[in-house]
Design brief:
By secondary structure, this protein is an alpha+beta fold. It contains seven helices and ten strands.
């Protein structure tokens, strides 16, 4: 049975596009009209919303590589550039630095010419590999293969572990550590230290929970209960995404009680509440 074609839910005020996994979207008009970006190519960076669209299909197989999932759900996505060595400009740069820029990566698979794009979900840049592969002329060149982690896996990690990494640190020390982790983007001169996307997310999460000091950063009420060990229970919420998982920078992450967390996702006034958080976090981090 064919997936139903639908249009995205989007608010320019809140900056939160929403897509349904498994649904079919048309690149034009469902994506290009509301978000802008290129109508061709595998990477489309929006100038209207905090999103970068990735499109995968079978065309890359002509050049000796194919995008794919591994057994753990990591997606291997080929960079753009048909001729000569690939470089970190335009779309490739947008993918590598999306978290630092506060942009979400939304992945689609082309289902056939004129048949639209099937939405596969949100992903986060983990790292990239350089491989030797032929270009459009058949000449070997350096090509970029991105490793992208599903946001859903990060959500599970963030909710499962929320204590210990920042133990013994002052708030400023914890913030410095979090910002340093969030800037690990694979660029030249960036100190990676073999830090995984989960560890980067954890450093930011721990600082945000320390910053909140046991109170929800939306309703400003104390956490409803404490974890084993006495740590106040609050949940990380990423204001630039409909789902959680990134980007990994303190300005985009809030610590919320479970009720407020559900409300900013599913409540009647979710977009307004999230926009309030965006402004509040910007003020907090600017003053820090």
């Amino acid at each position: 049975m064919a997936s139903k074609r639908t249009s995205p839910s989007f608010s320019l005020a809140a900056g939160l596009p929403s897509f349904a996994v498994g649904r079919i979207y048309r690149r034009w008009p469902d994506l290009n009209i509301p978000f802008g970006g290129g109508r061709q190519g595998g990477i489309s960076d929006s100038a209207k919303a905090p999103v970068t669209f990735l499109f995968t299909g079978e065309s890359g197989e002509r050049y000796g590589y194919a995008d794919r999932f591994d057994d753990e759900g990591t997606f291997f996505f080929s960079g753009e550039g048909q001729k000569g060595d690939m470089t970190f400009v335009r779309g490739n740069l947008a993918v590598r630095d999306h978290s630092r820029r506060g942009k979400a990566l939304h992945l689609f698979r082309t289902v056939g010419k004129g048949k639209g794009q099937k939405y596969l979900g949100e992903f986060v840049y983990q790292e990239h590999d350089w491989v030797r592969a032929p270009d459009i002329d058949g000449s070997l060149r350096d090509a970029i293969i991105f490793r992208l982690v599903p946001v859903a896996r990060l959500e599970q990690v963030e909710l499962a572990a929320a204590e210990g990494l920042a133990e013994g640190m002052t708030l400023q020390e914890s913030r410095t550590r979090a910002i340093a982790a969030s800037k690990v983007d694979g660029s030249e001169g960036s100190k990676r230290e073999n830090r995984t996307v989960y560890e980067r997310s954890g450093a930011v999460r721990d600082y945000v929970l320390q910053r909140a000091a046991g109170k929800c950063e939306l309703c400003e009420q104390p956490a409803p209960f404490r974890r084993n060990g006495g740590v106040p229970y609050l949940e990380p919420h990423h204001t630039t995404r409909v789902s959680d998982g990134g980007p990994d920078h303190p300005q985009f992450v809030a610590a919320l009680c479970p009720a407020c967390h559900r409300e900013v996702h599913y409540g009647e006034h979710a977009q307004t509440k999230n926009l309030t958080l965006v402004e509040r976090l910007r003020a907090i981090e600017t003053a820090a």
